[in-house]
Amino acid sequence: MRNLIINLAFIEILSFAGIWIFLRSLIKERRSEFGNILYIISLSVAAFSFLSPNLIFLNIFYIILIPLIARNFSQVAPIYIFCIIISPLLSYNVSAGGIFLLDYSVAHSLGIGAIIAFAIKGKGRSYAKFATDLPFIGIMLVLFFITVRDTSVTNILREFLGQALLYGPPYWIVSRGIRNLTDVRLTLLILAAAAVLLSIICAFEALKGWPLYRAIWSYHGIDLGSGASVKLRGGLLRSPGPYAEPLSLSFSLTMCILALVASRRSFRSRLWFLGLCAITAIGIAAPQSRGAWIGLIVGLLACDAYRGRWQVLATRTGILVMAGVLAVAGSTVNSHLANLTGTSAEGHGTIDYREDLLTRGIEEVRAYPLIGRPFEQVTEAMKDMTQGEGIVDFVNSYLVVALVSGLIGLAIFSTGLISQCTIIWQARVATKNTSTHREYLAFAFSTMIANCIMLANISMGGRITMTLGMTMAMAGILINLAYKHRRSGTFVE
């Protein structure tokens, strides 16, 4: 218990510092929109996660949190997103009559709380449309097929229940809870706050080699499995923060950092903004995910392209190329740079494994091209790719989709992602080049592009799918609002 209290104390101090720095950086008008909400949420979430006597008590807290904290309808979705991103999503099995039903987690309780808050705070007019929901629905149908093919009817129902309750609420709450550009601005600022908070915690974890949140899972008797074991790279901890493993953390952090960039007008000065960028750059380096770095860089360049800043794009591309060359050159004398660039022995091993996995995967896809075959059969056929942890590490979402649902499933999955990016790009014509709305659309476009890049280096599921769903929900709302303003002739500055 003593170690639990010590870990909690450090998390509370670091969380307070992160929120304080973030709020101090905002202009007065934006700071007043938050009050003490971010302090209350971040500090109470950590305290209840560490000190709750059991998971039932903890989930009751999460159910009532949003209805109690949200002051109006507009705050429900942003607060929900903030809680999802910064909370350890502890879970336990729910059974009835000895039959397993679903893995119930904190995310379910937050969803219930958000829906209750919607009912309490009053209905708001949503501009969500079924047409903009279709890309996400297509992706979810493919993922559902992957998990249920060649199984019993009861398992199909169980998986449908589990996936609908886990991945449905994040998309629905965000797409129906964000109604206008003011709501979008608040959501992006809350994502930026999460970026600063998590970055400070992750930097501390990496430098001290101390995974602060790991004690929570042990305290509640939850086995994370070998796939979520604490990992080191180049002598530094790959910080997982409140997540089960570092890759999911880096995926969420990328979205949050791009939201920070899109919110630049809300900060007191360019110096404050650059300071926050520096903090979050250190934060996303802490999980040591090269895929996240690549995704973030490509996302930032995509943001410039969307805003039509072609000269800035060319300049930044040149600077990044030079920085990459210098980093590779410096990796010969610095082990940390070697691990970051993948030029170390460990890095070469990781890259070689991914290349071999892709080669073997393509062989399997060629053998079963149309609808693939069940995941268990794929794993058995590719057991020659078993790595050090005793598993076949399918670190490529596109490859998994192709292996288990074939080229048909891959086409549907990819179409969902590409169509969303294409529709966002086309929405540029509905906004002024210098408008705030264009910047928000640029966030959606850059985040979707970054997600598409990172999915080639990570497996779908859990927080990854939830984050993707929330991104697509925000993109859909921004698209609908853009065309609404265009039809009415009321371009928003």
UniProtKB/TrEMBL annotation:
Membrane topology designation: Multi-pass membrane protein
Localization in the cell: Membrane
CC per GO annotation: membrane
Main localisation: membrane
InterPro entries registered for this protein in UniProt: O-antigen_ligase-rel_domated, WaaL-like
O-antigen ligase-related domain residues: 276-413
Lineage top rank: taxon: Bacteria
Keyword Membrane included in the entry's annotation: yes
Annotated keywords: Membrane, Transmembrane, Transmembrane helix
Keyword Amino-acid biosynthesis: no
Ranges that cross the membrane: 6-25, 37-70, 76-94, 101-120, 126-148, 186-207, 243-262, 269-286, 292-307, 319-338, 398-419, 440-458, 464-483
PANTHER family, per the entry: LIPOPOLYSACCHARIDE BIOSYNTHESIS PROTEIN PA4999-RELATED, TEICHURONIC ACID BIOSYNTHESIS PROTEIN TUAE
Protein name, entry field: O-antigen ligase-related domain-containing protein
Annotated organism of origin: Sphingobium boeckii
